[in-house]
Backbone:
């Protein structure tokens, strides 16, 4: 079949529709705009029929990544993405994506946008009173707030009441990270000392340490705002639970503060504690970032990336330290512009998510970039999707933060020494990957641009070139200290025990 | 953690064993020799404890491939391979491997080799009589025969009784493909005209066309030899079913032909039909193989590969035409030395299988090679495992038979023309991959050797170099005609309809 | 073990708690008041520990019925009932109850009552407008309204706005069936002609004919009020969906009608149509009920039952015609006082439900009765639970409406004649049960009172005695015409085709 | 529908078959002779179509019992029984039966009888040698031997080699229990002291104490004969495993003892130990059986039942002590004539099994009886199936051994006293059922004969009448001591701890 043949095809006005056409039409009716998948007998016809109706088809290299991409489209656009796989093994490969979607945000068959519901008026009143009486209040903004498009109302609440806020990983950008009320740089302190915390679509899961001491005050009061009744009261019993659409409920709260105006005193001791902690933490990060020793450490890398990060880009990230530290340094300015491994901690989602974001970006806002920050181990799960990126010429800059391993690795000399004592299956630590892997070749193999960088200067230059050239995707393979640790923390439970 | 630290570790003589050590010890007790996986909290300790007990650990890049590798080890060694994954997403990624193992051959928990059982004497007598009276007999040797180590007894039966035989894909090598009684080159004709067929551990599944007309005589009599009662009588009711260990049952058959000697007349019309058909088919293949036009076609490629194929190598293969046509040209001389996508038709198994075979080969028979023949689409499912291959320096030669697509693709000029009419998501046929992809870069990225070949001469040379140099794995990216079709078939139902 | 021993037991103040005590304490903490089950090793201790904490334990005869009883308690009391079974077969027997609970209303682990949420104000406004402009409005009250305790607000809406309403089977009693605005007697007509229908916690499932023509106007507008977003838009796309607590949303609607008062004109043509249809249907039923021929028909039976039905009793029912026709004649005056086979159409739930209702009634309101109306086939699923009823001396009057079969049966003479032609396994129609079965003996076997009734007079007398005597449960076995059909319907699709 | 109508029906010769007819025809082709179920829309037609083809249809009262009946037919006849249920709740109710069949013996879709397979000759030789050299040999005959129809070969082995044997519960009757070599009366001693044990289709599950000390010698050698490879080596690693058809393998063993004749010396110390233990155990049982105190104990009851037990009857049993003690006293003389709760310990199987056995008996051997021995609690699970028994007039004598509870209960006076202290839900021990329940009324309700017996004389008389009258089924409700314990055991671990 040639591209020309594609343009012809059967005339839909004549005769009846094929099964593939019926499926395609039904997807179109449900306002599906993107399909990801891998064709094979007998689903190729469905992909063709779908394209004919104007739905974009993205052919992927593994059903796993296809399903991750489809699930991300649901989150980004509010309309379902679709994953096309053959039955049997194809379907089983796709299960990872389905499980991840389930743990995060997305479902197929969600034909109608659900109607909006609001919290009970009296509960809203109680919540507002709690907040008025808080000594050390804190708002936590989760991805539920992003999904509910609650950015305007929550920002109004933050600014009108002068409250400190903290985003969860995928809640970043609902209010810009550089907003003066964002206390992300004092995250642990803020959680530990707050006496009243409002959760906007954020779950008290492992990322938020389950809401329990010693990471929180034993008597902290949670006000939980969520659309999902099952999430309310998980792990910790909230003082007030506001069940409803997060945007609508925030507006109900704002009405309370309109009726009886209130703002939290900006000169309080609480703000002083938070600002001082932020200052010292930022100084410590900057200190780490400015270290001149080579190989680079995480902070140096992310400092330089942040310097050049386009304000409106999507940030996609996965990995262990790469994702954790990157999150603290890289700033999001727009809602629903960060995608990461999420609640389920799934490795292998990054490239699928980046592809989805890039396809959406290309459609909506030509010129917008996707910055995909991968640990080297994380990149391995779906690195072959780089071919997909090149095939569709997607505006993605891939950063592989490469420490030669999972959590940590070995430098090339230690690796070679080690092999003298036996076969790698016998002597290599299970966390190690091959030192000095040239992941950038995976990009050049398909016509994209690749960079192998070992110094801050090389990093700066490669970023500049990658971001300047919109004609090709690129991959920057950034070599860091294989045993690089995160900066010391002043809470003992923050530092992971060495493996 | 460094390799040195590994050598020290905790002293097992002191104090009690950790949970990880208990698991490792239990695997050792069950005679597990290989573990494949991806570490993460909290399973890293298990990998370490396992290595300490002398079990080889192979760290993979995606749980999918790890699980495929573990399943292959079970088939190759008769002892279970183990797959180590973290719970949640890791486990879900591994499901594909588990499903595939289930459809083929391998189970965990198989502590004891099961005792051998034999067929009922009277049924063996009936089977022998049927065979004696056959006008056009045929033996089909399946992977069950390989798994049962029945190679010696079946070969004796073939030679003593002078019977024609046909291997199934993974039954290839139980008797060498170049044995004079092998009628693989007349496969369709042999199936279509045989009047008595003995199935040795072969299933009448889609690969054998379910045993039904018009691919078979309506009154063909099947003699089914299998260890698995559930397989007996699937799709077609056998004339005789011999339930038992395939090797033991074959010996029972041989006893019958020892008591009353018999051999099938070598000058029969049946042998004449088969030999003539083989001759004409081989001539047709040779004709295709000798075509000088470029890009090459499948037959030319496989002809040159076969020329240099080491007699004792493992052959691993997956893809559509790549696997189908490759199977007819590439010869196996040893049992249990071919692994392919098998009954379940799973794409993505190739590199995991190749890694498993190479790890086993390195252990048992240094110098032995694994030739892994991948379609370009198939390679994409787990191409990142090339890093694993390089990390463990495995004796693998990867051939990517590259037609720029699934089933077929576009040449680079047509591709570029096509893009003038719209975005690739809109205009590219769903079967297309990026033309001129340099998959060999995925190998050079990790220090292996890569070749991009477009002519028979380049193919010959790259094969020679790859096979000569045992110090590094290599990948040969073989460009073929993107619209290359298989040779014409004289049964209409053999030719797949165009997509 | 004797009852005395029970009073002693281990002293909970001394030493630590056993596993059984921990489980019991945890159930108590979750405000569980009732446990149903069957003991066995090793769960007997749990039942004992539970009783010690004041939770009532009801030992049942089959796990199926135990689980049905536990699920009903959840609906009746708003607190979970618990089902105690041994693992293995006991658990499997309980699956029916779990599936049924899932399809209806009940879940374990529902620790906290969920917070109340309200519908979006603008959607409420739209709904109110729709209703104001309706020509032929109808409210349908489902079991969701009962579960939400919305009886006062919905009744206020009905009476203030003078709207006709229709209860679903388990929605009966939210407003008394004998309320003048109830149009149950003109159900088919009301559904068929309404132009705006408000669904209060009612699903458009098979009981409501999926909301589709010809049972409804093609352009009928549905206003759906539900707590469950997943239920919204099933089968039919609602004109407005009000997501929220049904009671809270009804109050929101009332606020609209307080702001701008409105009532539907009582002298409208719509009310005239409905009242005339009700009158003619009631006349037809009364005609059937007054037939003097013997055996009795369904209408005669239910007419006499209704005559004596205590106003505050629970009505439990299952069967085919018995449940369907009984529902139209037997009136409920209180919310949450009717339990039947429900959405899932499960046979076998009746006695479990009746036992649960009776245990709750005994606790809350001594003197209250449970009337359990069973078809003879339905009674067979769990008839042995009569022993449970007698053991706990529960205030249940069981009516078995006996037509010797499923849907229909044979009279005793035809049965005997038929047996002359062969064994019953060969000649008896599969729908037949044994004619003249004395189900009342199943009650007298355990000390309860049994009645075998064949005439209206016997029925009246037995009902009078059963309801007068609170000291013992009773069972009235009511013989009806084995081929009794329901009254003719004037919609052709209402009449089931003969088997 | 009347019986007459049934005889007419549609003419199968005209026109095409309905869906129901296709299903029925397919069951007939697979040699299905019995269907059990409950009809409803839309499966009634299937039952009718099935009857037309001569398959017997038995309408049951609960899908649970229907499925148990269908599974028993598979065991009794070697051809599958079929269970007909409606989808949804009917299917869920049937799960118990499916799980139980799975744990025991029966599968649907078993179209072809599997071919027979034999054990490896060398393994048979080793097994025979082990047996020749045994000091204290023992054969254990399981239900696998019964299912394999191995009665003749195993009996020949027992008698020719003069070996002691022990049946498992459902292995009883493969060789008659009263055979002089049966050491059932010294079961615990035989297991404890044997040095070589041959297992014929018996599993080392909880019934056989998992094959472990202290119930067995630590160095006992097991020879395992089984058709199922998965069963081999469970719990204990056998010295020899003979995989194959149990009858065929036993014949292979006999061939060994034909070649080199051998018999175990009848005057050995081992036989002496066993005979003495049997004598003392039988004396203890007889002592218990002859006790004159009332209420009766278990041994008295079973002694009198055994006195009148027809030699060729089926014995079905379930319960706790009722099944355990009954098994030791009631003797089976024919293979496949005992059905009980089996490996899975399922309560509720009894009446379904009895109905299946009776339907088969009526077909094969008019005059043959089914004696169904139920504990009172066990009877409650499916007591309503008594109506089924009466409807089909099945030759069943039901014995309910009634101790007013599960394991034990209270006498009527203690029960009444106890109720003075509170409601039964609060004060009744969870193991108690209603004292003096007249279960026999459940039989008289449907026209069968019922007996309430409290003395040995009443028991004898009622048994005599029940067995003499073939025209009606009967139920004998046998009151025993509510706190009746089993006889003291001289192994401490045999006596269950009091609840």
Residues:
């Amino acid at each position: 079949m040639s591209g020309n043949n594609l343009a012809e095809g059967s005339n839909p006005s004549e005769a009846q529709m094929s099964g593939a056409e019926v499926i395609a039409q039904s997807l179109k009716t449900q306002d599906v705009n993107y399909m990801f998948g891998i064709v094979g007998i007998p689903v190729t016809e469905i992909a063709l029929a779908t394209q004919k109706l104007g739905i974009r088809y993205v052919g992927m290299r593994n059903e796993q990544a296809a399903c991750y991409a489809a699930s991300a489209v649901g989150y980004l656009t509010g309309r379902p993405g679709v994953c096309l796989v053959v039955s049997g093994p194809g379907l089983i490969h796709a299960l990872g994506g389905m499980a991840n979607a389930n743990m995060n945000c997305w479902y197929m068959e969600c034909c109608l946008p659900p109607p909006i519901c609001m919290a009970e008026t009296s509960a809203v009143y109680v919540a507002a009173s709690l907040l008025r009486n808080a000594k050390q209040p804190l708002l936590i903004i989760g991805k539920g707030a992003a999904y509910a498009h609650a950015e305007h109302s929550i920002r109004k609440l933050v600014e009108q009441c002068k409250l400190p806020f903290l985003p969860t990983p995928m809640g970043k950008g609902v209010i810009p990270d550089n907003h003066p009320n964002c206390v992300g740089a004092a995250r642990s302190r803020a959680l530990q000392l707050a006496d009243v915390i409002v959760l906007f679509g954020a779950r008290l899961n492992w990322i938020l340490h389950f809401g329990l001491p010693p990471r929180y005050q034993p008597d902290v009061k949670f006000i939980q705002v969520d659309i999902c009744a099952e999430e309310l009261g998980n792990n910790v019993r909230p003082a007030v639970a506001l069940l409803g659409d997060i945007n609508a409920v925030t507006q109900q709260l704002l009405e309370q503060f309109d009726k009886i105006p209130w703002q939290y005193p900006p000169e309080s001791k609480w703000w002083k504690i938070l600002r001082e902690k932020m200052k010292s933490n930022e100084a410590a990060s900057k200190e780490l970032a400015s270290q001149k020793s080579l190989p680079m450490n995480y902070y140096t890398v992310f400092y330089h990336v942040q310097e050049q990060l386009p304000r409106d880009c999507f940030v996609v990230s996965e990995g262990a330290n790469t994702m954790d530290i990157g999150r603290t340094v890289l700033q999001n300015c727009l809602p629903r512009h960060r995608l990461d491994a999420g609640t389920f901690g799934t490795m292998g989602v990054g490239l699928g998510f980046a592809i989805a974001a890039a396809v959406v970006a290309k459609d909506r806002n030509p010129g917008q970039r996707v910055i995909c920050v991968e640990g080297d181990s994380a990149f391995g799960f779906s690195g072959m999707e780089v071919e997909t990126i090149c095939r569709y010429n997607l505006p993605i800059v891939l950063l592989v933060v490469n420490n030669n391993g999972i959590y940590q690795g070995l430098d090339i000399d230690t690796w070679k020494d080690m092999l003298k004592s036996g076969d790698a299956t016998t002597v290599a630590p299970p966390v190690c990957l091959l030192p000095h892997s040239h992941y950038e070749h995976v990009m050049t193999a398909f016509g994209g641009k690749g960079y192998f960088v070992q110094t801050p200067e090389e990093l700066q230059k490669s970023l500049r070139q990658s971001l300047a050239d919109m004609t090709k995707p690129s991959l920057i393979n950034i070599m860091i200290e294989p045993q690089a640790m995160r900066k010391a923390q002043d809470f003992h439970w923050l530092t992971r025990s060495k493996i």
